[in-house]
Amino acid sequence: MFKLIGLLLCCWASLSAGRLTTSGRDFYYNGQKVFLSGANIAWNSYGYDFGNGQYTANSKSTLESWLTQISTNGGNSIRIWLHVEGANTPAFDSNGLVTGPDSTGTMINDMRSFLDFAQSKDILVIFVLWNGAYLREQNTINLFWDEVKLQSYIDNALKPMVSALGNHPALGAWEIMNEPEGSLFNNQANGNPCFDTTPLKDTGAGWTNLYIPMQNILKFVNWQADGVKQANSAALVTLGSWSEHAQTDTKSQSRNYYTDSCLVAGGGRANGKLDFYQMHTYSYNGQWNTDAPFKVSGSSYGLDKPLVIGEFASVCAQNEGIQNLFQYAYDNSYQGVWSWQYNAGGECSDTQATQNSGMNKLKGQNGAAGAVTFPVGF
C-alpha cells in the first residue's frame, strides 16, 4: 500500500513538473498551448557571462535586471549565449580536449542561478552553446574536425550541464549553435543533397571563411543533440539558422539541411535531431527577401515542427514597426518570436524601449497561436 502511494506521488510530481514540450507544430507548457514571445539577451559580457566566477563578478545583476524588464513588458522567453566562441568556457586541456564545463566549477551553479531568477519572472530560457557567425578560437574550431575532441566536450561538459539542469522548469531548450552557416564551406557540390551546399551559392553563407563542410556541421549538431537526449530524453533541442535559405525545401535557393534524415546522415546518431526550427531574418537595404519570414506564413515553409523567428530587429526591417512585426509572427503560423538584442549594442539591434514595445503588443494574448502569458513552474 505504502509502495503504491509512493509510486503515485512520484508519478504525480513528474506529471506536474513544468516543462516546455512540442506536439506537431505547436509548443505546450503544462498542457497549455503557448506562443514564445521575448528577446535575445545574447550577452552582457560576450562569452564571459557564465563560468569561472564570471557570472557573479560581471553579469548577474545586469542580467537579472533585464529579465525583470522583459517580464514586466510581457516577454515569456529569452535566448542567451553560453560558450560563444569558447574563449572562457568550456575548459580545454593543453591537447584541446574538454575536461569540464569550466575551469573553476562555477558554470552549472551560474546557470542554475540564472534559471531560478528567470522562473521567478515566468520566463523560459534557451541556452545557446556555440556561435558559428563569428568563430576565432582554434580549440572550438577543432571540435568540427576531431571526433575525439567533440566527444570529450559532450561527455565532460554538455552532459553534466544537461544532467544537472535539464529538469529545471525555466529551461526551455538547448540550442546547439547560432548561425552555423557563417562557418560553412559554401557552394560545395556533393552527391548527397544533405551535404551539397550549391543551393546556397549566392545567399551569402560562409562569411567567416572557415570552410567547414556541411557534413562536419551536421555531425557537430547531431552528436551534441544526441548527447542532450542521452542526458535528458525530454529536453528540447534547436538550432538558430541565419535565414530561411537553410531550413526549408519549399523556397528558391533553399534547402532544409537540418531535417531528421540529414542530421542522422551527417553524424549517424539516431536521437540527434531538432525538436523545433528557428530562422533569423534581417532586411537588406531596407527590403526583406521575397521568402523571408515577415513576407510569408510560417506554414509555407512546409516544416513538421514548431518554427520560431529567432532573431530580427525593426531597425533592419521594412519600416513595419516593432509591434506590427511581433503581431505578424503571432498571426501567421509561427510559434515564437525573439527580438535582437536586449543589450542594444551592435548592428541591427533595437533599443530596449523598442523591444519592450513589441513584447507589450503580445502581452496577455491567448488566441489560436497560444497563450503568451503563462506561469513557469508547477
What would you say this structure looks like, in words?
This protein has an eight-stranded parallel sheet with strand order 10-9-8-5-4-13-12-11. A three-stranded antiparallel sheet has the order 1-2-3, with no helix packed on it. The chain has a two-stranded antiparallel ribbon with strand order 6-7. The chain is of the alpha/beta class. It has helices spanning 2-16, 54-72, 107-120, 138-142, 147-165, 214-231, 260-267, 322-331, 352-362; strands at residues 20-23, 26-29, 32-34, 36-42, 77-84, 91-92, 98-100, 124-131, 171-178, 237-240, 277-280, 307-311, 336-339, 366-367, 370-371. It has a single domain (22-371), classed as Glycosidases (TIM Barrel), CATH 3.20.20.80. β2 and β3 form a beta hairpin.
CATH superfamily heading: Glycosidases
Shape: globular
Roughly what fraction of the amino acids lie in strands? 15-25%
* Rg (CA only): 20 Å
Strand order of the largest sheet: 10-9-8-5-4-13-12-11
Assembly form of the protein: single chain
Give the SSE string.
HEEEEHEEEHEHHEHEHEEHEHEE
| Head-to-tail CA distance between termini | 27 Å
Number of domains: 1
Do you know the CATH topology?
TIM Barrel
Average predicted confidence as pLDDT: 95
Which spans of ≥5 residues are poorly predicted at pLDDT below 50?
1-16
Please report the total strand number as a whole number.
15
SSE-based structural type: alpha/beta
Which class in CATH terms? Alpha Beta
How much helix, percentage-wise, in residues? 25-40%
